[in-house]
Structure formats: structure tokens, C-alpha cells
Amino acid sequence: MSDLFTAPLPSDPLEALNPKQRAAATAGIADGAPPGPLLVIAGAGTGKTHTLAHRVAQLLRHGASPEQILLLTFSRRAADEMARRVQRIVAQSGRSAATLAAAGFPWAGTFHSVGARLLREYAGVIGLDPSFTIHDREDSADLMNLVRHERGLSAKARRFPLKGTCLAIYSAVVNTQAVLADVLRTGFPWCAEWEDELKALFAAYVDAKQAQQVLDYDDLLLYWSHMAAEPSIGRELGERFRHVLVDEYQDTNRLQASLLYAMKPDGRGLTVVGDDAQSIYAFRGATVRNILDFPARFDPPAQRVVLEQNYRSTPALLDAANAVIGLAEEGFGKTLWSARDGSQKPELVSVRDDADQAAFVIERILARRETGTRLRSQAVLFRTASHSMRLEIELARRNIPFVKYGGLKFLEAAHVKDLLSILRWAQNLRDRVSGFRALQLLQGLGPKTAARILDNVSTAPPGAELLREQPVPEAVRCAWTDFATVVESIGDEACAWPQCAEQAASWYLAQMDRLYEDAAARAADIQQLARLAVSYPGRERFLTELTLDPPEVTSDEPGAPLLDEDYLILSTIHSAKGREWSAVSVLNVVDGCIPSEMSTGSQTEIEEERRLLYVAMTRARDQLELVMPQRFYLTAQSPHGDRHVYAGRTRFIPNRLLDRFGQTSWPVVEPAQRSGLTVEQARLDLAERMRSMWR
């Protein structure tokens, strides 16, 4: 990390900023009225977070209070880091605002977490029950499947989309604010014939959520947007949050942009920070148009400040990255530059196939390790998770530890979902998905009995559910009474937090030996979850934030690499955004992989693929290798069957850019030749060694 971000701050914090950063941090700020709309175009590695933290500090120094600042990020960790930086900046300046900053920022968080808090606060005004629960993606898919089955769509003579596809279509419509027909045509053409059935399904899904008092991820933004669209509430929110600052604005979708404009129609007090060249999440509904069109949304247009001094990469690496993104059809013009030393160009490496690609990458990684670059300072990036399979096999064979980003999330582990379903159901007994899962944790209580209990609960008046009196098989009666007592106890508003979480965990831990063969390993997660509960002020906040911003991994995943002295980083390019390493190797930099052959249907898709390569290239500080296998082995490629295909260098690095790169053809040497033996000698030697094992 650059000294820029770790060195002690001077008494005047602005002295730590370069001229463009200083302009972004102070633009329009004066005592009194909020500044006009501001767009900060922050290129990769230009100190975006550093600059945004200084802007918040400047707002505090000019009279804003933390309660008036709404800081929207894309992860809770980013919000926490921003708050820490602001507190450090203001405290070291010795200003009186330090006492305000020390209290923290109550309205710093992700769009979804802030939306959840606002919806609970305004629930009575907009017709929501304040005790609503929030479904994660898997729970939402289960509810979608339940509605799908109830409407007879699972019994169609022709293949109807499965629950995950239905939820993806629904989410795309909500987040892109597009009509269903357009979403089906562009993203799900194989489902277009079911448009009418899907419309009816989604309407029934919405009815089911409202009846059960549950919201899904998309509802948190949708309801917030609709709430802010009410003129009186929109004005109230705009006055309440005099300053709204949004990080990573290039990753927002149309729904997120609409709620910002509803709160800040004239843009006063609105600052957005991002980089159009790093907009790579269209598959989540994000649109680069939000940042490209931002200045013209206002009259006069929003002020624009461009950050171009890069503190991460060498000039040679930036020269190549600038050239690649410079061929984009549209974007804010900027040229990243660096004052660092280093003239080693990024390397285009031609190899024969994916086996040689793996061998080459490992050879380079180990060579750098021997010269002092730790494995953790090196990363291998790829367009799609499957692209690293051959490399993973070879790393395992050579006993080189690695961690791969993009695996199983903490909340996707079955045992974690079990415990959370108990807590969610106790909070909201009409949450059918959570209740259905929680009830079947009891031995001998099956889906029919669970459904009957949920039906009884849903028709009972609130507060009169009487769980212990529900009809259950006599063999289950004793266990049911214990379980119902626990649920009623932890669902009581008088139940202290985190004692109710500990009570639920204690009951569940006693069931784990029966539920899972590897109960001991899974129990560690449950105990960790109970400890984590202590850091939250209450059950509602705990369930909301854990659902919206969960830990990354679980004990279900192999843990050995993290216990090693060092380990290599493998990551998809999407998961690598925002990170950096000393050395980066990018796999399969060929047409068909980058850009993906699945993402070349339109120029919009191709431009995003170009940005994806740019993001990969700008993760490297000192060394960058773009590896290009000449041949791939594909299976089940009807009508031709298994076959080899040949690939060319990615279209994003045409011949006219080659002078920015070094070029290498990695030598292909047969294994027998490496040992000095002929192929026949090697075969005979192997046969003799195999026979000797049994003598």
C-alpha cells in the first residue's frame, strides 16, 4: 500500500492530497447551504476512498453533523473503513468537529442495509409491518418455487423455468426498471414463450411476500424508491440527509439512481464517485449509463473532477491499460499516470494449451517467490471460475496452497441457514419459508405437519398463535414442546439480546449430531455466529445486516490453505475488483474467453468485456502477464463432438497496441525430454518402477 494512505497526516489534512484530490474534497463546500451536484471520476488506484473520506471530513469541518450525512457504499466493510478514515483525518486536524466524528456515522452502509432501516422507520406510513423479515436469495427462490408449484407451473407438459431462473428474471425487471418482455428478449430468450405465465407468477409472488410480511433484496430498493417518490417523504428525506455521498456509482442500477434523484432532485448535496471504465456488473442490473449521464441530469450540469494520478501501478502497466480502454466507444476521457519507477511492460505470453498455461503460471509464481514476492502478493485472475480448473489441479499436485475467491458464502451453508431460520421465524411467525425449514429440524416432523402448523399460524390473530398447542404426532410431542417454548421465548420482544441468539444456538447445537455427519466442524460456525451476535445491538439489526452483508466463507470449505505460511490468490476478475497485488497473471486472454463468447451479442456487452480486461490489468502493481493458450479441448460440442478449437489473441489488444506489451512464446517441452530421456526410455522406466512396487 502506498505511503499516501499510511503516513501520519499533517495538521492541515488537505496537504496530504494532490491538486485534483483536493479539488474533489473541497468542491462547493462552504458554511451554510449544501454544495451543488458533484461527479468525481476516480481512475483505478487514484485514491478514491482517500479522497471521499477527506470530502466527508471537510463537510464536518464546515458544520455538517454526522446524522446529516448519508454515505452509501457497496459493502458494510467499505462503510466502516470510510468512517475510520474520516475520524482519523478530523481527529488529527485538531478541529472541534473531531468530537462529532468520534460518534461515528449512523447512516453509513450499503444501499440495502440503509433501505432496510428506513423502511422499518417509515413502515407505518407506507403500509408495511415493522416486524417484516428479509429473505436472502435462497429463501426468495424457495418462496418463488412454492408459489410456482401452487399455480401448477411445475406440472407443465413443456419445460417451465426453474425457481432460480424465475427469481433472476423477476430481479432483473425490478433492478433495471425494464418491462418483462424486454428482459426476456435480451437476457432470457428461451423463456419468452412464458411471458404471460411469468407475469401472473410474479404477481402471486408479491402477494405471498405481503401476506407473510417478508421482503426480498430487491424490495429493499423498490420500496425505498417508491417511498421517496412520494413528494412529501422525498422532501423529508432530502432535508434530513443534507449530504448524500455514493461510492462506486458505476455499479448502481436504475432503481438506485431513481431513489437518489427522488431525494435530491436538484442535486444539491449529492456527490457520486466512481469510474465508468470499471463498470462490470451488468449481470447484476448495474448500468454504466448512470455515471455517464449523471452530469446532464441537472441544470446547470454537475461539476466534474477527474482523478488521474495512480498510486498503484508502474507507468508501463498504466500505458498499456490506458491504450486498451482508450479504444472504448464511449467514456469520460482520462489518462492514468504514475510517479513510480518501473519500465517493465506487461507481457503477452503465448502457450500451447491450458496444460502449458498452468505450467507456465506456476513456474513464474514460484520464481517470483524465490526472489522475495510472497504467494499472497500474487494473484491469478480469470473471466469465469471454470477457467482455473486445470491450474487448481496442478497447484494441488505440487502442494502449492491457494485460496479461490467466489466460493460458498457463509449464509449458503445449510447449518447456518438452519439457525437463522429459527431466529427469523421467531421474529415473524408468518414467514413461511423460514418456518418450513425450522419446523423440519425436529426429528419426526415432516413437511405435511409443518405445512399444517404454518397454515394454523397464518390464520390466527397476531399474538394468539399458541405454538405449544399445535397438533403434532404424539411421538414428537415432547420435542415439540421444548422447541415451541424456545421459539416463543426468543420471539418475545422482552427477550434480551444476545441471550435469545444464544438460546437458539444452544437448542440447535443439541440437534446437530443427528442432522449432520460432520457436526463438529459445523458447530464451530454456530458458535462463531453466536459470538458475532454480541457485536449487534439487537436481533433485528443482526438478521438484517448478516443477510445483506454476510461473511465470505464457511467451515464447509477446505481450510488448509489459510493455515499455511503463505498461499496464492485465485479469483474471478469480478471478485478481484477493488483489490491489488504485486504480480498478476490473467488466464485465457483470447477471443471467446475475454470477451466471453456468451457476451458478444451486442456492442454494449462487448464494451463491458473490454472494461473487464481493463479491471484485470489495473490490479497489478509491478508485474502483469496476459496468458494466451492457442488451443482448447472442448467436450460435447454437438454436432462435432469432443474436439480441439484454436483461439486468437483478444480483440481488445489489436496489432496497433502491441508496442505497449512484451511478447513471449513459452517453450513447449515434452516431459520425457525434460528428464533427458527419449519417450521410449521414459515409458520403459515407468513400467519398471510400477512393477517394482509389487516385488
Topology, pairings included?
Blueprint: H1 19-26, E1 38-42, H2 48-61, E2 69-73, H3 76-93, H4 97-101, E3 108-110, H5 111-121, H6 123-126, E4 133-134, H7 137-150, H8 163-176, H9 180-187, H10 195-212, E5 214-215, H11 217-229, H12 231-240, E6 243-246, H13 254-263, E7 270-274, H14 289-292, E8 303-307, H15 315-325, E9 347-353, H16 354-370, E10 378-382, H17 389-397, E11 402-405, H18 414-427, H19 432-439, H20 447-459, H21 477-491, H22 499-509, H23 512-515, H24 519-533, H25 539-548, H26 560-563, E12 568-572, H27 573-576, E13 581-586, H28 603-617, E14 620-634, E15 643-646, E16 662-665, H29 671-674, H30 679-692
Parallel strand pairs: 1-7, 1-8, 2-3, 2-6, 4-5, 6-7, 9-14, 9-16, 10-12, 10-13, 11-12, 13-14
Antiparallel strand pairs: 14-15
List keywords for this structure.
single chain; 695 residues; alpha/beta; eight-stranded mixed beta sheet; six-stranded parallel beta sheet; 46% helix; disordered N terminus
Summarize, please.
With 695 residues, the protein is of the alpha/beta class. The protein contains 30 helices and 16 strands. 46% of the residues lie in helices and 12% in strands.
Describe the structure.
This protein has 695 residues and is α/β, with parallel strands linked by helices. 46% of the residues lie in helices and 12% in strands. The strands form 3 sheets. Strands 9, 10, 11, 12, 13, 14, 15 and 16 form an 8-stranded mixed sheet that branches. Strands 3-2-6-7-1-8 form a 6-stranded parallel sheet, sandwiched between helices. Strands 4-5 form a two-stranded parallel sheet. Helix 13 (254-263) links the parallel strand 6 and strand 7. Helix 8 (163-176) packs across helix 9 (180-187) and helix 18 packs across helix 22 (499-509). The longest helix is centred in the first third of the chain and has 18 residues, at 76-93. The protein is globular. The N and C termini lie far apart (58 Å). Mean pLDDT is 85; it is low at 1-7, 553-563 and 635-640.
